[in-house]
Write a structure and sequence with these properties.
Length: 123
């Protein structure tokens, strides 16, 4: 059973994530640890953003206990060149922010995802 899990993590997961990345260009990744106090502080803000921006898919991924999420976190970190990455980490397209302090990071994270597309005005 352990060999099957290892096979899945190292062989099959890269193909799954590649297909996922192709199909979802507007995905906001929030990588967090259940043990991290800064992550717990960031969670309500991420949930608020999720309500504000229904045009973006939000993925909240716990990495300290979930091997699949941890593998995706490593892959994203390598792809973006994040050195010594920790949590919380916020990723949107080719941009990322590591860390969170309430009252300081919210503006930077909002700027990272940009403003929603304007809907055409009906006349």
């Amino acid at each position: 059973m352990k060999k099957i899990l290892i096979l899945f993590v190292f062989v099959l997961i890269p193909f799954v994530f590649s297909a996922e990345e192709l199909s979802e260009s507007e995905v906001f990744y929030f990588f967090y640890s259940s043990y991290c106090p800064h992550c717990h502080e960031a969670m309500p803000f991420v949930e608020e953003l999720e309500k504000e921006r229904p045009d973006i898919t939000f993925k909240k991924l716990e990495v300290s206990e979930d091997e699949v999420n941890r593998a995706l976190f490593r892959k994203k970190s390598e792809k973006l060149g994040i050195k010594g990455s920790g949590v919380p980490t916020f990723v949107f397209k080719d941009k990322y922010i590591v860390g969170f302090k309430k009252g300081t990071y919210e503006k930077r994270i909002r700027a990272m995802i940009g403003k929603p597309a304007q809907k055409p005005v009906k006349k």
